[in-house]
Design brief:
Length: about 150
């Protein structure tokens, strides 16, 4: 009640479209503060691991053409990609997507396996060529010596 007029006090009416004063929030669902997405601490390492895994596989497979020179680059990259992806996957909170980390783990492991299989297939191929051609084996011995010094 207003003491001067003896009438009940009325609340001031806010015009349409006017925002409430700072600190007062309308609890309607349309006026909620924006939702901040949850951060994924393992996301960056997952991306790094995925990229290293891809480059490691490419370098390992390129060793077929370069006669093993890029194998020295592909193996460390694949190992680094595998490690980064495992760490990125372990830092990813439960319920967050971790597909890039899993892909990096797979690509890193495939790069390491390819680094073991590709030279073995090359040596096997040379052995088959030697057996079919009847050479003395000096070419195979030269290759084995080169791999040993590698």
């Amino acid at each position: 009640m207003d003491p001067h007029t003896q009438q009940p006090m009325q609340q001031p009416v806010q015009p349409q479209g006017h925002m409430p004063p700072q600190g007062q929030f309308n609890q309607s669902p349309h006026m909620q503060p924006p939702h901040t997405p949850q951060e994924n601490p393992g996301h960056t390492l997952s991306i790094v691991g995925l990229i290293l895994g891809i480059v490691g596989i490419l370098a390992t497979c390129a060793s077929i053409i370069t006669f093993g020179i890029t194998l020295m680059i592909g193996v460390p990259l694949s190992i680094a990609g595998l490690i980064c992806s495992i760490i990125g996957r372990s830092r990813t909170p439960q319920g967050m997507p971790s597909g890039m980390a899993i892909a990096g783990i797979i690509l890193g492991a495939v790069g390491i396996l390819a680094a073991m299989v590709i030279p073995a297939l090359g040596i096997l191929g040379l052995a088959i060529l030697e057996a079919e051609s009847g050479t003395t084996g000096s070419e195979l011995q030269y290759l084995l010596d080169a791999l040993e010094n590698y």
